């Protein structure tokens, strides 16, 4: 991954970061890097995430899924238990990977009605093995397979902790079971079995994904001048302190649209604490130039735009046509047009005095997505260190889980009571 921060400096944007501030940031990054490196070395909770490219066994995952013959995969999970897998397969152009990451009954019915159960593997992921949404969806999926006369046990892989209801079920049914790595929060777990089972079933080179992650991990140094990942995290924090409270993440590749979703969880769940954090906004270039760019260019000076640009891609020529006003398109390709749209968006933001950061990668492939995942995880961890927050916890999420469990099970938890006692002011 490469980074261009020129349009986030105070000479180009308001607010922006001065070169003097960059020097001060560099000192802070050096100190934070020592903390991160020590955490990685000791496999401390959260920091162990950056060790996954080394500790994850691609061979072990491939061996576990080898008996499963499938043309499609249905991942049953939620949050980090689903987004990492979808991010990887989408980046690789895979259309036959489906998610059940919500409990909307109408959406679930539509998905199950469209699935070919005979050719679809089931990938169930829950770190605790107690996540209500995941367990409920899995029970529904299992029932649908049985109703169709398809043996779900022959095509199901479970990724979970050492104990819990899901682990017990896997043991009872003799299902292939892979471990959620210790010390790794779900949103940081993409380069483990959590994110790699689905692409492995579909035949992708998951070792190459890990190779890309290793390259990103090995690039981490104590200076923002030599480390794009840390530079991104540090600049985002510096801008947030100057009033930039929204981070619009805008890849110029449809294959990276799920990556923007993954980034949104990573950034929000990790850094939204103690009255701090940036609100992530998801956008897609060039599509959202026609829907969101108006706000980012002409709205308040409270938003940075992260522009993600692959420098190489497969391409398609635009057919020549002898029509005035259209002929110029016949000398170009769709890739040329997309690149021009990218450059235009970046220039448009700069002309409006709005901060943006350019992120470039060589290509969206196995190595490329592994690099991006680890780079942004490292960026997020660096941001958390500089902000002084507990990056790897998610107490607000746990509050909601406890409330839902209490309401569904009739358990009078404090969270469930708070829901029942909410203030009402109805307008009908």
UniProtKB/TrEMBL annotation:
SUPFAM superfamilies linked to this entry: SIS domain (SSF53697)
Gene Ontology CC annotations of this record: cytosol
InterPro entries: G6P_Isomerase, Phosphoglucose_isomerase_CS, SIS_dom_sf, SIS_PGI_1, SIS_PGI_2
Enzyme Commission numbers on file: 5.3.1.9
Subcellular location: Cytoplasm
Reactions accelerated catalytically: alpha-D-glucose 6-phosphate = beta-D-fructose 6-phosphate
Presence of the UniProt keyword Translocase in the record: no
Active site: 269 (proton donor), 301, 401
Keywords: Cytoplasm, Gluconeogenesis, Glycolysis, Isomerase
Pfam families on file: PGI
Primary localization: cytoplasm
Pathway: Carbohydrate biosynthesis; gluconeogenesis; Carbohydrate degradation; glycolysis; D-glyceraldehyde 3-phosphate and glycerone phosphate from D-glucose: step 2/4
CDD domains tied to this protein: SIS_PGI_1, SIS_PGI_2
GO terms under biological process: gluconeogenesis; glucose 6-phosphate metabolic process; glycolytic process
UniProt-recorded Gene Ontology molecular function terms: carbohydrate derivative binding; glucose-6-phosphate isomerase activity; monosaccharide binding
Family statement: Belongs to the GPI family.
HAMAP family named among the record's database cross-references: G6P_isomerase
Function (record text): Catalyzes the reversible isomerization of glucose-6-phosphate to fructose-6-phosphate.
Protein name per its UniProtKB record: Probable glucose-6-phosphate isomerase
The species this protein was found in: Halosegnis rubeus
Gene: pgi
